[in-house]
Task: inverse folding
């Protein structure tokens, strides 16, 4: 199985807000295209995430055109 992970880190401890504010889709694509491929092993602790998102609102904001009925 192959997966890809791209991590964006700010240069300073308080720079995350600036990075997120300036990050656009075009900039992210350029960063990904210019980044070298590095093989790493990542070990994550076991965790559980539970969520009940409102897909009727979420999917259209992501560009999906959906019709929901109850």
Result:
């Amino acid at each position: 199985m192959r997966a890809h992970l791209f991590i964006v880190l700010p240069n300073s401890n308080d720079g995350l807000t600036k990075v997120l504010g300036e990050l656009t889709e075009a900039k992210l694509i350029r960063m990904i295209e210019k980044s070298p491929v590095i093989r790493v092993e990542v070990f994550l602790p076991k965790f559980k995430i539970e969520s009940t998102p409102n897909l009727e609102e979420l999917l259209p904001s992501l560009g999906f055109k959906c019709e929901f009925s109850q």
